[in-house]
Every structure is written in C-alpha cells, then in structure tokens.
Amino acid sequence: MLLTLILLQGFSHALAANHGSHWTYKGPHGQVHWSDDHLDCGGQAQSPIDIQTKSVRHNPALPPIEPQGYRSPGDGAFTLLNNGHTVEMSLPPSMSLRGLPQTYVAVQLHFHWGSRGQAGGSEHQVNGETFPAELHIVHYNSESYANVSEAKQRVDGLAVLGILIEVGNVANPAYDNILDRLKNIQHAGQKISIPPFDIHELLPGQLGHYFRYNGSLTTPPCSQNVLWTVFRQRARISASQLERLQGGLYSTKVANSLPVPLVDNYRAPQLLNQRVVFSSFPVGPSAYSAGEIVAIVFGTLFGCLSIFLTIHFVVKRIRMKRIREQKDVVFKSSSRRAVSGNSHRP
Ligand SMILES: *[C@@H]1O[C@H](CO)[C@@H](O)[C@H](O)[C@H]1NC(C)=O
Ligand SMILES: *[C@@H]1O[C@H](CO)[C@@H](O)[C@H](O)[C@H]1NC(C)=O
After folding, report:
1. Ligand 2 neighbour 211 (Cβ under 6 A)
2. SS3 helix, strand, coil % of the chain, rounded to 5?
3. How many whole angstroms separate alpha carbon 261 and alpha carbon 248?
4. Which of 21, 19, 25 has the alpha carbon at shortest distance from 260?
5. Distance CA 287, CA 133 (A)
6. Threshold 0.70, pTM exceeds
7. In the 3-class helix/strand/coil scheme, how is 70-96 assigned residue by residue?
8. Closest residue by Cα to residue 106 from 178, 182, 161
9. Which residue, judged by its Cα, is nearest atom 6 of ligand 2?
C-alpha cells in the first residue's frame, strides 16, 4: 500500500516536472499553451514582434553597436549543443557589446528556422515579411549583475542581437563553422567542442542601422527582460546552407525509435501593446506602401506634365509674338520701300 503510494507520488512528480519543462511549438504543449506553465509567456511585452516601419520612431541618439572581442574570441573551444529546441553555441565572457545603455557580456547564440519548401523561419518580421531563419546572440548585463543566472531574474538583465537571415547565391563561410558540425549533434542532448572562430563574420555589415525595443525571451519562461536589437541589414547564406539547418537535426533523443525532425522552431509575432519600437536610422522610402508609391509616381508625372505644358505654351506665345514683330518689320520696311519707290517715280 505504502509502496504504491510512494510509487504513485513519484510518478505524478515526474509527470509534473516533465510537464513544466516539456514545451514544443505545435500540439498540446505548443506555443498557445506556454502561458499555462510560464505566466510571463502571456505577458504584455513579449517577443518576437512584427516590426511595422510606419510606426517606428527614429531616435538619432542610438549609436552603432560595437561588438568587442568578437573577432578573436580566445583559444577556448566552443560547445555546440542540440538542446532539442535549437542548436546552441556557448560564448566566452571575453565577448561583449558596447553601444547599449550598459555593458553586456555574451553567453550563447542559437538559431530559429523553418522547414524545407515552406515560407517562414525567422521570429521577427518586418512589415509582415518573414525570413528563412534568425540568429540570436544572447548577452547579460555585466555592469549590474554578477552572472547570467542572476541577470536572468532582473528586468534589465539581458540584451539580444537579432540577425535576420536571407538566402543569396553564395555560401557564407562563417556559417559553415556551425553548419558543418550539425551532423555530429543530430539528436537532442548531444554536444561537441568546436574550435573558436570569428563571430563578427556572422553579423551583417551595417551595425549602425537597427530596431530597438523592450521585449522577452522567445521561448519559455519568456522572461520580459530583454533589450532587443534587430539589425535592419540581413545576413546572407546559400540555399544549401539553409537546407542543412532545416534538415540537420532531430528534437528527439538518440534512443528514440521515432525521430522527430527539429524544424519550425519559431514563435509567432506577439502584440506590441503599449511599446514603442525605435530605429537608429531614418526609416526611408521602403516605408511607403504600394498605394503611396503609386500616388507619388502619378503626382510626379502630373507635376512634370504641368511644367512641360506651361513651358510649351510660354514658348509658343513668345514665338508668335516674335513672328508678329517680324511681320511688322517686314510690313513697315516694304511699305517704306513702296513709299520711297513712289517718290522716285516721275
Ligand atoms: C551568481 O551570482 C550570485 C550573486 O553574486 C551568486 O549568489 C550565485 O552563486 C552565482 N551563480 C553562479 C552560477 O555563479
Ligand atoms: C525599456 O524599458 C526601460 C524601463 O522601463 C526604459 O527606461 C527604456 O527607455 C525602454 N527602452 C526602449 C527601447 O523602449
């Protein structure tokens, strides 16, 4: 009897623990249910968001992001881990960020992506546009807190760089440092050490142009303590590199006889609510909608046509005036000649 009780208790305990930590993107533990176990996931300042450039506020005081120690991150190996939700790479504390309100030290980077032949994969969107993948480089506030575990609990604890990834014609060799190793960590829980490489090469070229807002972790526990920087410029990888990310991993452990592909690990955009998204750059013509562009084109054409017609009529008038004047001269001189001719006549 007692044994059964103890067993039962242990069983329900295991279930509860499993329930808390086991989350997915779709299905019974999918993103719409995250807030059942993690209250913050139902909060008012969640990430990702769909950045509507029309509503973005330009803040010219936002300086360029300055990554420190990204190019030569020491001699220590990086650990690359398949945690069942993403591929995550540990980063050394010698890497940090300047250009934010405080100094933030690097912790890890990881990816979000879609599945082969399907649109979507990025977490952030720009004017409703999705991208095939997104890279997140996670940092903690080292000026205020002793370590990442402490910073995670605080409202100004984390800063994440969001890099939207698009597909181009050429392979991006920096990304191969990670993508080439996925075959060694196909199953959840597997990890390997890889030689350190230049992390700066994973970033887009223009670090001065970005969107900035207050948001959250995009996975449970969805803590609302992330200062987000989403770069305007995208990083570019090749189609075959993207396919390796989309087809390289399983979300299940090696012992699982029914391996589940690790795909579509991106959260849907969350409500902006009262928040403001700032931009470090003036949001340019790309912010115009198709209707506005048509209006601008027709307005310009109409303006040009008016100027052309005005010039045309003015020139025509001047020419007619000249012709009339010339006729006058011809008439006067010929009439004078006629007069003088008459006078010579006897
Ligand atoms: C993090 O810092 C806090 C506060 O200084 C300390 O109590 C805790 O042990 C540290 N945790 C780790 C994992 O180092
Ligand atoms: C983020 O929130 C903090 C605290 O409320 C505020 O001081 C800061 O201006 C906010 N930053 C942005 C980019 O909205």
Report:
1. no
2. 35, 20, 45
3. 8
4. 25
5. 23
6. yes
7. CCCCCCCCEEEEECCCCEEEECCCCCE
8. 161
9. 214
Active site (catalytic) residues = 85
CA of 148 to the centre of ligand 1 (A): 8
Separation in Å, CA 136 to CA 23, 26, 106? 19, 21, 11
Per-residue pLDDT of the chain (346 residues; tens, 9 = 90+): 444 444 444 444 444 444 446 899 999 999 999 999 999 999 999 999 999 999 999 999 999 999 999 999 888 999 999 999 999 999 999 999 999 999 999 999 999 999 999 999 999 999 999 999 999 999 999 999 999 999 999 999 999 999 999 999 999 999 999 999 999 999 999 999 999 999 999 999 999 999 999 999 999 999 999 999 999 999 999 999 999 999 999 999 999 999 999 999 999 999 999 999 999 999 965 545 555 556 767 777 877 688 778 778 777 887 877 767 776 655 555 555 544 444 444 4
Amino acid 78 reads F
> Which of 141, 142, 148, 150 has the most ligand 1 atoms within 8 A of CB, as the residue to mutate?
150
Instruction: Match 């952030």 to its residue by tokens.
Output: 124
